[in-house]
């Protein structure tokens, strides 16, 4: 069958460096760190006492207080980012065929704060199960897509993908496939996470996965630096409106970029560690390039998974060199997690938004906090260290990899 073209007609962002798309882009462009001491709980006795939290965010500014109480924070973030993207797309809601609008979202964990709060409350009681009636609908991961659908009356496919830190990229690719095969005309997609909680921070530090640079949080997320010591957890959401090209053109929509390919793979190696040779990452990028029907040398910018972990960073760069060959040294590469921290299941969404904005503005966001590049990382690679730069970007690729060996890659093109 002939596949339809899919374009991006709306963007939304709620991030540790900006609560709107424009604020987020300003933060990216200027190399702002979103990291600081944890305020959401008393972290004094934790090995890691900092995170990339949202700043000056009040949910009641966006969602009716009664409705907000029925949502875990990860769902609140999803709704806020989706609302911005939907408004940005500027639909005529009266004429939009809502039966052909889907909501496909990503979250790696879902309502962890809700689960945590209920169990703490139960544990402090006399053993009587006094459970909030909204406990289950707040906790389950698909509540995010469900709430977006209910809020807007979108009756197309509606679900959440769960594949750890590749969840949002998986959601974006699923949305892409539904549209290009003609099943729907429009899809709200992206991802969200709210992991700055006792259980999450405690669990990741127990794994020795997170940075413990408590004396200098602003520089703790330092992908590719020789002294990196783990990732920094972040919270928030990113949203994209994907739309069939002719449908968008017919209504005179603003078009940011075209989504041209998506790739998947599995490391089939380890429950948390990436393949040491980056083989899964390589397969995911190859699959995406083949799906997009483009040559490796057509890619201008790669937004890496780049989490600031000792093991993960070198394997991804090795995979990029193996995938792109000599062209790897001509591309711009950066990790925006150096600024936002790692939004886990929401990471791919905010990074897809960053990739689209990089195309729109013809500007590469930096990898901040690179003080001494790791000598094990190919020195010929342009990591856009510390300062962003203007350059020609026709095609941008964004990677997302997750615990369990899940890999997903998306590719956007200027239109």
TrEMBL record:
Residue ranges occupied by any Ketosynthase family 3 (KS3) domain in the UniProt entry: 3-414
EC number: 2.3.1.179
Residues the record marks as active site: 165 (for beta-ketoacyl synthase activity)
GO biological process: fatty acid biosynthetic process
Any one Gene Ontology molecular-function term assigned to this protein's record: 3-oxoacyl-[acyl-carrier-protein] synthase activity
Coiled coil: none
A cellular component annotation (GO) from this entry: cytosol
Keywords linked to the UniProt accession: Acyltransferase, Fatty acid biosynthesis, Fatty acid metabolism, Lipid biosynthesis, Lipid metabolism, Transferase
Pathway membership, UniProt: Lipid metabolism; fatty acid biosynthesis
Catalyses which reaction(s): (9Z)-hexadecenoyl-[ACP] + malonyl-[ACP] + H(+) = 3-oxo-(11Z)-octadecenoyl-[ACP] + holo-[ACP] + CO2; a fatty acyl-[ACP] + malonyl-[ACP] + H(+) = a 3-oxoacyl-[ACP] + holo-[ACP] + CO2
Biological role stated in the UniProt entry: Involved in the type II fatty acid elongation cycle. Catalyzes the elongation of a wide range of acyl-ACP by the addition of two carbons from malonyl-ACP to an acyl acceptor. Can efficiently catalyze the conversion of palmitoleoyl-ACP (cis-hexadec-9-enoyl-ACP) to cis-vaccenoyl-ACP (cis-octadec-11-enoyl-ACP), an essential step in the thermal regulation of fatty acid composition.
Family indicated by similarity: Belongs to the thiolase-like superfamily. Beta-ketoacyl-ACP synthases family.
Official protein name in the record: 3-oxoacyl-[acyl-carrier-protein] synthase 2
């Amino acid at each position: 069958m002939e596949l339809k073209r899919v374009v991006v007609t709306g963007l939304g962002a709620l991030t540790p460096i900006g609560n709107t798309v424009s604020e987020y882009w300003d933060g990216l462009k200027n190399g702002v760190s979103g990291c600081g001491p944890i305020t959401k709980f008393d972290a004094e006795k934790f090995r890691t006492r900092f995170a990339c939290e949202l700043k000056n965010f009040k949910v009641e500014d966006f969602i009716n207080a009664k409705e907000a109480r029925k949502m875990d924070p990860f769902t609140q973030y999803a709704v806020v980012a989706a609302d911005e993207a939907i408004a940005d797309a500027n639909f005529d809601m009266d004429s939009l065929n809502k039966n052909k609008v889907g909501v496909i979202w990503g979250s790696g964990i879902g309502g962890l704060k809700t689960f945590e709060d209920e169990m703490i409350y139960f544990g402090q009681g006399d053993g009587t199960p006094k459970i909030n009636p909204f406990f289950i609908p707040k906790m389950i991961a698909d509540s995010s897509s469900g709430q977006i659908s209910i809020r807007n009356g979108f009756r197309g496919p509606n679900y959440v993908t769960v594949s750890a830190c590749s969840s949002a990229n998986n959601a974006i690719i699923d949305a892409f496939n539904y549209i290009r095969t003609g099943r729907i005309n429009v899809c709200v997609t992206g991802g969200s996470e709210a992991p700055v909680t006792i259980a999450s921070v405690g669990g990741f530090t127990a794994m020795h996965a997170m940075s413990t640079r408590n004396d200098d949080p602003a520089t703790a997320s330092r992908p590719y630096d020789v002294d990196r010591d783990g990732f920094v957890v972040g919270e928030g959401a990113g949203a994209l409106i994907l739309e069939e090209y002719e449908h968008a053109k017919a209504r005179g929509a603003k078009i940011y970029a075209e989504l041209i390919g998506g790739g998947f793979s599995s490391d089939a190696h380890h429950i948390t560690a990436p393949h040491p040779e980056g083989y899964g990452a390589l397969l995911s990028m190859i699959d995406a390039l083949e799906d997009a029907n483009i040559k490796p040398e057509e890619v201008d910018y790669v937004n890496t998974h780049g989490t600031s972990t000792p093991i993960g960073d070198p394997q991804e760069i090795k995979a990029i060199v193996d995938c792109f060959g000599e062209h790897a040294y001509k591309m711009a590469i950066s990790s925006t997690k150096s600024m936002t921290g790692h939004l886990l299941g929401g990471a791919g969404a905010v990074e897809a938004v960053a990739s689209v904005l990089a195309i729109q503005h013809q500007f590469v966001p930096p990898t901040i906090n690179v003080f001494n590049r790791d000598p094990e990382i190919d020195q010929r690679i342009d990591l856009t260290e510390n300062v962003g730069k203007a350059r020609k970007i026709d095609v941008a690729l964004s990677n997302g990899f997750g615990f369990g060996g899940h890999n997903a890659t998306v590719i956007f093109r200027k239109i």
